[in-house]
UniProtKB/TrEMBL annotation:
Mapped ARM repeat ranges: 478-520, 520-562, 561-603, 602-644, 643-684
Biased composition range(s): Basic and acidic residues: 351-369
EC number: 2.3.2.27
Any Pfam family hit: U-box
Protein name: RING-type E3 ubiquitin transferase
Record field: catalytic activity: S-ubiquitinyl-[E2 ubiquitin-conjugating enzyme]-L-cysteine + [acceptor protein]-L-lysine = [E2 ubiquitin-conjugating enzyme]-L-cysteine + N(6)-ubiquitinyl-[acceptor protein]-L-lysine
Stretches the record annotates as Disordered: 332-440
Keyword field: Coiled coil, Repeat, Transferase, Ubl conjugation pathway
InterPro entries: ARM-like (IPR011989), ARM-type_fold (IPR016024), ARM_PUB (IPR058678), Armadillo (IPR000225), PUB2-4-like_N (IPR057314), RING-Ubox_PUB (IPR045210), Ubox_domain (IPR003613), Znf_RING/FYVE/PHD (IPR013083)
Length: 763
């Protein structure tokens, strides 16, 4: 019996030691724990080898063979922990398991050695008292710091409502191999999977324990965000411009099937690793198609232009290939710890009366006749939730020069206008002067951005479906259910209050918007667009604007017959109601079929009137909506006939702050004869040439595109373009402009040359 047990133990030891060639053993934290077990087994192995040749007298020692059996099980268990771990297993859970096993194995080895030492049998040299005493001393001196006790302490603090300190979070991260944002997000996903296993086996105690571990990991992630928020910054930026994976401003944002937006290089790497869950929501990805989020990309692009910021190439980012640290600097931790209370206590965004700074949005045409519109964003645009199905949106008419881009806006009294401009609360930094040096946001100083922490009902980058989260969602659902009933009240005061609360709830995050959309509130809000109470009407239209950020809600709003009531508000509402109505029409128009409905419902005339006679903010809202509607071929003629070209050319005055917006719409309208004639008759050619010479990069692109349409379709307009001195700025643009601008400029210059040679030949 003993011989069999010893033989099994020897086999188990050799099997474990062969793990040294496994691919993940040298990873953190596995290498550390493998070496700990290896150190124990290196002492046990010669004793086990010697015991294997003991005489049969030891077979009578029941205690000995039970010890060998227990050691064999422990060694096999430790081997299984290492071999069963894979890239998506929980490191924290592994550490807790292995740290509970190593002391047990250590004590069993000491007990076994002491029992062997007490035997009076004739033993080999390896099993003589002197040798065993040395082995026992060696084992006793193998003491290790156990992070499991630190984790237990953090869990106790959490249960007591204190929460672990930043120093403790760093210590846990460093000792479990969770030093980067990606590692933390993967760990959260892994713990969720472990919790599902526990739920399936109805192990409620384990489920509760894993829930608490998930909260600890969430706190580690939140601490990483706080570090980003509190780093020195000369430029402020909305949190929604950051990728939840890279924690950097996105340059190529894409949407996954869960509706969340990520930096393409980082989410692609995430998926390539085999992770088929959304890092933020932890939903299973129904497909792995990455859909470009042109809206967020445009918003960020405009912010960069406004603030003279250059973003680094994400494919060359240090954090893509080298995991960025969780940071363990005591000073940083202390600062973050002290600052966190300040963030939590910070005032909410300012009210409607606060001044709203002016920022621009730009629209540019790409090489395929499509455009991108860059804008700062109104309020808290849910990261990645502006559109969940962009693949069906970019389908312009064949003759469209500038195609569709989304421009999400949220609550008008929160932060922005129809063009997505920041208005109050946490403002973007003022536009830098042309002479200011361009900032290069490489990985070394990407902390120049800050992220505003979520409001109570706001989204969390890592939003584990904890009991607390479920309770919060249930609270919102109950609140919304009550508010929907109040929307139907006959009391104007009750309706006004209910629409105001829904407006605020819809401003906070995508989960709230989904709950409200599913509650049946949209139909009642649409009906209240005809309310005679101006405050109720403003609240209703702004709530619909906020809700429309979600694509499903876009469809629900259109299906509820909102287009004509929105036009009613556009014609008869207050200034703010008109602005938000225009913005809502724009939001709905990102769905192709809605472009047709909106155009056919008579919205274009009121939008053009707002473009010409509205407030500065209203003009930008109208320009944004008209730009989107001008994607559809049938709408272009109506826009021109409604007199939009004259207003657009007036807005090319730099003092209006809308040059790029106006030029982008004109580039679309220049694709039809009526549009070209109107541009020529209203004196737009000279202004377009001026933009080619002095405008922004996107303005130059679109101005060149418009001039190309004008010149190649009319000899008279071609001569006018030449007479305005377009050749020198076009030559400069063909050499130093963006790729798109160079292409347009070169095509136009080539056309001029061909025309000249053709005329010379005929002479």
């Amino acid at each position: 019996m003993v011989e069999m047990k010893i033989s099994a133990l020897v086999d188990s030891i050799y099997s474990f030691l062969n793990l040294s060639s496994s691919r993940h053993i040298d990873l953190d934290p596995f290498e550390k724990y493998y070496k700990r077990v290896e150190e124990l087994l290196s002492v046990l192995k010669p004793v086990a080898d010697a015991a294997a040749v003991l005489n049969s007298d030891l077979a009578l020692e029941e205690r000995l063979w039970k010890s060998f059996q227990e050691l064999t099980q422990d060694v096999d268990h430790s081997r299984d922990l290492f071999t069963n771990w894979h890239a998506f297993s929980s490191k924290v859970y592994f550490v807790l398991q292995i740290e509970s096993l190593i002391p047990k194995m250590r004590d069993t080895i000491v007990d076994t050695f002491q029992f062997l030492n007490s035997l009076k049998n004739d033993l080999p040299d390896e099993l003589r008292p002197a040798s065993l005493e040395k082995c026992i001393e060696k084992i006793k001196h193998l003491s290790y710091e156990e992070i499991s006790s630190v984790i237990d302490g953090a869990l106790r603090d959490q249960r007591d409502g204190v929460g672990p300190s930043p120093e403790i979070l760093v210590k846990i991260g460093e000792n479990t191999g969770l030093r980067s944002n990606q590692e933390i997000l993967i760990e959260a996903v892994a713990l969720e999977r472990q919790k599902e296993i526990a739920e399936q086996s109805e192990n409620n105690a384990e489920v509760e324990f894993l829930d608490q571990l998930i909260v600890i990991v969430n706190r580690m992630h939140e601490r990483l965000l706080l570090i980003k928020q509190t780093e020195t910054s000369s430029v402020s930026i909305l949190a929604d411009f950051f990728c939840p994976l890279s924690l950097e401003v996105m340059t190529d944002p894409v949407i996954v099937s869960s509706g969340q937006t990520y930096e393409k290089a980082f989410i692609k790497r995430w998926i390539d690793l085999g992770l088929k869950v959304c890092p933020k929501t932890r939903q299973t990805l129904t497909h792995t198609t990455l859909i470009p989020n042109y809206t967020v990309k445009a918003l960020i692009s405009n912010w960069c232009d406004t603030n003279d910021v250059k973003l680094p190439d994400p494919n060359k980012s240090k954090s893509l290939n080298e995991l960025s640290p969780l940071l363990s600097c005591t000073d940083s931790m202390t600062k973050v710890s002290n600052k966190s209370n300040d963030w939590d206590a910070s005032p909410s965004r300012s009210n409607d009366s606060e001044d709203r700074p002016n920022h621009s949005r730009e629209m540019n045409t790409d090489a395929h006749g499509r455009s991108s519109v860059s804008s700062t964003t109104r309020g808290s645009v849910e990261n990645g939730q502006t559109s969940e199905n962009h693949h069906h949106l970019r389908s312009p008419s064949a003759t469209s020069s500038v195609s569709n881009e989304e421009f999400p806006r949220t609550d008008s009294n929160e932060n922005s206008d129809a063009s997505g401009e920041i208005r109050s609360g946490q403002p973007l930094a003022a536009t830098t002067s042309a002479a200011a040096p361009r900032r290069d946001l490489s990985w070394r100083n990407r902390g120049q951005f800050w992220r505003r922490p979520s409001d109570r009902l706001g989204s969390r980058i890592v939003s584990a479906p904890s009991n607390e989260a479920r309770r919060e969602l249930a609270e919102v659902e109950n609140q919304v259910k009550k508010l929907v009933e109040e929307l139907k009240s006959s009391s104007l005061d009750v309706q006004r209050r209910a629409t105001g609360e829904i407006r605020l709830l819809a401003k906070h995050n995508m989960d709230n918007r989904i709950v409200i959309g599913n509650s049946g509130a949209i139909v009642s809000l649409v009906e209240l667009l005809h309310s005679t109470d101006s405050a109720t009407q403003e609240n209703a239209v702004t709530a619909l604007l906020n809700l429309s950020i979600n694509d499903n809600n876009k469809s629900l709003i259109a299906e509820a017959g909102a287009i004509e009531p929105l036009i009613h508000v556009l014609e008869n509402g207050s200034s703010e109601a008109k602005e938000n109505s225009a913005a809502t029409l724009f939001s709905l128009s990102v769905i192709e079929e809605n472009k047709i409905k909106i155009g056919q419902s008579g919205a274009i005339g009121p939008l053009v009137d707002l473009l010409g006679n509205g407030t500065p903010r209203g003009k930008k809202d109208a320009a944004t909506a008209l730009f989107n509607l001008s994607i559809h071929q049938e709408n272009k003629g109506t826009i021109v006939q409604s007199g939009a070209v004259r207003y657009l050319i007036d807005l090319m005055d730099p003092a209006a702050g809308m040059v790029d917006k106006a030029v982008a719409v004109l580039a679309n309208l220049a694709t039809i004869p009526e549009g070209r004639n109107a541009i020529g008759q209203e004196g737009g050619i000279s202004l377009l040439v001026e933009v080619v010479e002095l405008g922004s990069a996107r303005g130059k692109e679109n101005a060149a595109a418009a001039l190309l349409q004008l010149s190649t379709n009319s000899g008279r307009f071609c001569n006018m373009v030449l007479q305005e001195g377009a050749v020198p700025p076009l030559v400069a643009l063909s050499q130093s402009g963006t790729p798109r601008a160079r292409e347009k400029a070169q095509a136009l210059l080539s056309y001029f040359r061909n025309q000249r040679h053709g005329n010379a030949g005929r002479g």
